[in-house]
């Protein structure tokens, strides 16, 4: 399987629930890049999207108009500008995130600690490795979106994990940023999310990150060699 799909997409719907939907544009790719759209207080926010035929139909099925496209990780520019242009809305980028706005061919708006009623949680802002990431937490709706540090794709999880910490962060998991959150639903930028008891899955991922790191690395090595 390729790391990232290209060419004609074959959209697969994931994480479908009242007030939101997720999709993977290229289901056969290793990275399992997941995109989401959330309807909050009459506005639809599109998070880290990869474009595909059928995306606009998914957005039209939500309650509200598209208010903006959101880049939550500095590496997740993806197709944000193209979808923003098509819907005549800005791309929203955290006010502290650097090196992203100038690379987007679309109007850009900045946001701080809140976006559309959701709390913006700084997960990581580091130069080594280069990594700028914000999570979005809808406490009232019991929903958390994490774009990269925690995910559900196969390459992020051992066989015993529902959610897993990114391989590069296994020894330094983002406990300070995420440990105090207790969502029912956890959505991820890679892989289908957790639709129930997400707080427990998140806590297990963070608590077991270091101890399960050797197992994940061994699994990855077997896949690479196999």
TrEMBL record:
Name of the protein in its database record: Glyoxylase, beta-lactamase superfamily II
């Amino acid at each position: 399987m390729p790391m990232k799909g290209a060419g004609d997409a074959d959209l697969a719907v994931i994480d479908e629930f009242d007030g939101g939907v997720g999709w993977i544009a290229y289901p056969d790719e290793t990275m399992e890049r997941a995109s989401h759209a959330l309807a909050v207080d009459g506005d639809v926010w599109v998070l880290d999207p990869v474009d595909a035929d059928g995306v606009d139909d998914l957005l039209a099925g939500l309650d509200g108009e598209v208010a903006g496209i959101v880049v939550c990780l500095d590496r997740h520019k993806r197709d944000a500008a193209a979808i923003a242009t098509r819907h005549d809305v800005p791309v929203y980028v955290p006010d502290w995130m650097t090196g992203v706005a100038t690379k987007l061919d679309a109007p850009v708006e900045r946001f701080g600690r809140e976006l559309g009623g959701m709390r913006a949680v700084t997960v990581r802002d580091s130069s080594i490795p280069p990594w700028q990431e914000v999570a979005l937490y809808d406490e009232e709706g019991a929903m958390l979106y994490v774009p990269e540090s925690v995910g559900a794709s196969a390459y992020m999880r051992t066989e015993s994990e529902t959610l897993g910490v990114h391989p590069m962060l296994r020894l330094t998991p983002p406990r300070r940023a995420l440990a105090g959150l207790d969502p029912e639903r956890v959505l991820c930028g890679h892989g289908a999310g957790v639709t129930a008891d997400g707080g427990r899955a998140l806590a297990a991922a963070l608590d077991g990150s270091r101890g399960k790191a050797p197992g994940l690395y061994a699994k990855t090595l077997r896949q690479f060699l196999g």
